[in-house]
Amino acid sequence: MKRLLTLPLFCLISMHCNKQQPQSVNADLVEVLQEDKAFENTPPPPPPRESPVNKSTMVSSSPVTGQQEPQPSVEPISKKIIKNGEISIQVGDVKKAQQQLGDILKKNKAYIQKEEYQNTDTAEKISLVIRVPHQEFDGLVNSFSDGIGSVTSKNISTNDVTEEYTDVSIRLANKKIYLEKYRNMLKTAATTKDILEIQENIRELEDEIDTSEGRLRFIDDRVDFSTLHLDLYKEKVRSSATSKIGFGSRFADSLTEGWNTFVGFSLGLIALWPFLLIIPLIIFLWKKWRSRRKNK
Prior knowledge:
Layout: H1 2-41, E1 59-61, E2 68-70, E3 81-90, H2 94-107, E4 111-119, E5 123-133, H3 137-143, E6 150-160, H4 162-188, H5 192-224, E7 225-235, H6 247-271, H7 273-295
Parallel strand pairs: 3-7
Antiparallel strand pairs: 1-2, 3-6, 4-5, 5-7
Helix pairs in contact: 4-5
């Protein structure tokens, strides 16, 4: 009888143990899921603080990746000032004034870039384009005030091109960066179409770089060496208001002009010799015809 009661009791205990084990597993699984859900709901940590951006660094869109990339910072550029001048000087002797000019240019480390000579009926003139280091420009201009002749006109101008120079420099640096990127892409290009497109972009960038570098060289040249347009002239017919020209020079010019006028008049008469021959012949024939008509 005891055995019969023990067997059902053992079965009940076994069934109860089997039911308790899955419940513990399910409880563990629920705890894991709750932890995962809690982790997902946890707000992410704040992003790291970025270092302050340099004001000299600019941001642009890359033509290669289409993303914004910082441009390289450009070193501070000193003032770029271009000086130009125009001076006209009236002299008594052009050749002598030109010799004096040579000494002045040598003293101020200047040189003649262009020279043009004109000799007309009214004036003799030498037009010069002079290049001088910008440090010597003011000294050269002041050297013309005395010793050569009378300064009849003077125009000095300055042009600040610092902003243009800085802008061209920044663009040039960016173009060089993009050119390097395109060259790296060309090494890994897989199709002919990609190769041709990259090569075309490289060609355009190289042309733009050459243009920008040429512009910078031109500005540097104009900044380092100022340009002065100088005219040395002598009037062949002068008025009494001429300054720094003596009476003797004006008297000699008047005699020369009078002689030139006489020679010109004489040559004009000689040029009319056909008329001087034909007109008397016409008058003779007309008188002869008139006398015959009266006799009839």
